[in-house]
Design a protein that fits this description.
The protein is about 30% helix and about 30% strand. With about 400 residues, it is an alpha/beta fold.
Length: about 400
């Protein structure tokens, strides 16, 4: 039996609650046991609580109670799943807003105190979840569908919804397995993209979906850094100064090592650094009726060092700087290859959409040369493969 915790997050009117039901139906159809942790804040606020009328102490107790209730509910379902008689059934725990969503609605000092009271660290809060799916608010890219009808306690304007969406994404951006699902497609396909990501992470059968990973060879434009903010130790201060014309982004440093295996199936390990936070992940393949399915697991620093000793002989270590951001309703990853030297200063732009989608590129940041989605030499493995030189 495999058990996974998934946090479904996003700004107001992003489709979280509707998506939760569809995701649960998909996995139940695969024979999984699915627990839905419904949004705690909406449950409490719909009972008559008005945050605007609360004193500072009352607001603190409310946010702490929301966080504690999320933890208690998730832990209860986790315990029930682990104690089931039938231990052969896979389990998926889906949270409509995970623990870190509560941090968006209070100050940083208040959230730090809540974590201390709950005997948790910020890293503990992140590592509760195997992966995080951020659904972008309809107010960013699908404005015609933004409304407050589906949630009676929602009162945000479209501008406020976009701000909350950005702050929510910032709360989760250090998670090593974060997927941002934008509004570049209709809602049904938006949900399918979320399902596709979760299936890839947990090793489940993938749904039929026309969304694919598209890669473009680009040149980096030399522009004044007037509409972007660097994601570093001071990123929170920078984020507070952002407005709707600002591109919020996350910078990370990644190292990839491809591994040899007895069965010949592709494997790799990744080290990812965001600020002072470092995570390690092992990606491997499982054989299912539909073919190979990738699965990921967190590993320790020691495990990472051990697995690196299994480096595939005809490959070298790939090091890259990544910048992730949402622009014009699309989620992008800007990748700068640092190692191997032969590919130094290779710049790629990655996004996820249908092949026919017309993409609005961030031309103030990059110049598009051509699409290289199907060119193997621009895949991670292709970049890692040794040709004329060594690492």
């Amino acid at each position: 039996m495999s058990m996974f915790r998934i946090a479904l997050t996003g700004g107001p009117c992003s489709g979280k609650t509707s998506s939760l039901a569809l995701i649960a139906d998909h996995f139940r159809g695969l024979g999984w046991l699915v627990y839905n942790v419904h949004e705690v804040a909406t449950f409490l606020l719909s009972g008559g609580v008005s945050p605007a009328d609360l004193t500072a102490q009352q607001a603190y107790v409310l946010q702490k109670t929301i966080a504690q209730t999320i933890i208690n509910t998730e832990d209860l379902y986790w315990f029930l799943a682990s104690q089931r008689i039938d231990q052969s059934q896979n389990v998926l725990l889906l949270s409509d807003r995970g623990l870190l969503d509560a941090s968006v609605y209070c100050s940083k000092d208040t959230w730090s105190q809540i974590l201390e009271d709950l005997n948790l660290s910020a890293q503990d809060a992140l590592q509760r979840y195997d992966c995080v799916v951020h659904l972008v608010t309809a107010a960013a890219g699908a404005e015609q569908f933004y409304n407050c009808i589906t949630n009676l306690v929602r009162s945000e304007t479209a501008e406020q919804a976009r701000e909350l969406d950005s702050r929510t994404l910032a709360a989760w951006d250090k998670h090593p397995s974060l997927c941002v699902v934008d509004n570049s497609t209709g809602f049904q396909l938006k949900v399918m993209r979320a399902i596709q990501f979760i299936c890839e992470r947990v090793g489940a059968v993938l749904p039929a979906c026309s969304v694919l990973k598209r890669t473009f060879l680009v040149q980096k434009n030399k522009t004044k850094n007037t509409n972007t903010n660097t994601k570093d130790k001071n990123n929170d201060k920078n984020n507070d100064k952002n407005n709707d014309n600002t591109i919020r982004y996350v910078d990370s440093r990644c190292e990839y090592t491809f591994l040899s295996s007895a069965d010949g199936k592709p494997q790799r390990v990744r080290r990812r650094e965001i600020g002072d936070n470092t995570t390690y992940m092992h990606t491997f393949s499982l054989t299912q009726s539909s073919g190979f399915v990738e699965q990921r697991r967190y590993i320790t620093k020691r495990d990472y060092a051990v697995l690196q000793q299994l480096k595939l002989s005809n490959t070298c270590i790939v090091r890259a700087n990544k910048r992730s951001f949402v622009y014009a309703g699309h989620y992008f990853e800007f990748v700068e290859i640092i190692k191997p030297d032969i590919h130094r200063d290779l710049f790629l732009l990655v996004t996820y959409c249908e092949a026919s989608t017309e993409i609005s590129f961030p031309t103030e940041l990059v110049s598009i040369q051509r699409e290289v989605t199907n060119e193997k030499q621009y895949s991670l493995l292709g970049i890692a493969t040794i040709q004329r030189n060594n690492d």
